[in-house]
Amino acid sequence: MAKTSRDARKHIKALSDIFMGMTEIGEDVIDELIKQYSERKYLRQSIRRLIDKGFLKQKEKKWIVTKEGRRFFLKKFPEEDGKTIKNSTRRRWDGKWRLVSFDVPGGYSAKRDQIRSFLKEFDFLPLQKSVWVSPNSSDDEFWKLLVKNNLDRYCKIMIVDILEGDEELRRRFRLTKTS
């Protein structure tokens, strides 16, 4: 990896650490962050790129992370141990697992990659290559995204009460038994 891409990743990580804890940040906090770097123009360039991609926006001397930005930061920098799923919008678990299976014909690897990307965005974990699971009830939002991107014909969504051997999944999603 080139030095500039390593630096860009370092800058994005620093910004992620700041923005993931808050919904909006004062301009002075960002100015202080910029002062900590010797190559300030590159950090400013990283901020401009985040704005151009719609991940950040500036409004009245405040910086705001967008919904897309929050997803980007979570995807780019998952929890440090890599074994547990962090979901800032998790509601109380209803005891049901959401399973998504997909079957994309050969020659459509971009569509397959897109489905996997959406599954990761919605905190799904792979059970097998084309079967993913999550305890989160974001069914409507997820399905609308699949339909919007013409991927729904490749997917089946199931909601199940019992998933044999789900102890490891409960631990990774930080779930406790309901009853």
What are the salient characteristics of this protein?
179 residues; alpha+beta; Arc Repressor Mutant, subunit A; Alpha-Beta Plaits; 2 domains; four-stranded antiparallel β-sheet; three-stranded antiparallel β-sheet
Explain the overall architecture.
The structure is a single chain. The protein has 179 residues and is of the alpha+beta class. The protein has 2 domains: 3-76, Arc Repressor Mutant, subunit A (Orthogonal Bundle), CATH 1.10.10; 97-172, 2-Layer Sandwich (Alpha-Beta Plaits), CATH 3.30.70.240. Helices cover 44% and strands 17% of the residues. α1 (3-19) crosses α3 and α1 (3-19) packs across α4. A hairpin with a 2-residue loop joins β2 (56-59) and β3 (62-65). The longest helix is centred in the N-terminal third of the chain and has 17 residues, at 3-19. It has 7 helices and 7 strands, in the order αβααββαβαββαβα.
Topology, pairings included?
Blueprint: H1 3-19, E1 24-26, H2 27-35, H3 40-52, E2 56-59, E3 62-65, H4 67-76, E4 97-102, H5 109-121, E5 125-128, E6 131-134, H6 139-148, E7 155-160, H7 167-172
Antiparallel strand pairs: 1-3, 2-3, 4-6, 4-7, 5-6
Instruction: Give the ordered list of helices and strands.
Output: HEHHEEHEHEEHEH
Number of domains: 2
State the total count of DSSP E strands: 7
Globally, the shape reads: elongated
The helix tally amounts to 7
What is the end-to-end distance? 50 Å
Tell me the helix content.
40-55%
Strand order within the widest beta sheet: 5-6-4-7
CATH class of the largest domain: Alpha Beta
Gyration radius, to the nearest Å?
19 Å
Taking all residues together, what is the mean pLDDT?
79
Structural class based on helices, strands and sheet pairing: alpha+beta
**Would you identify the regions where 5 or more consecutive residues have pLDDT less than 50?**
80-90
Largest beta-sheet characterization: 4 strands, antiparallel
CATH topology of the largest domain: Alpha-Beta Plaits
What is the CATH architecture descriptor of the largest domain?
Answer: 2-Layer Sandwich
The amount of beta strand, in percent, is: 15-25%
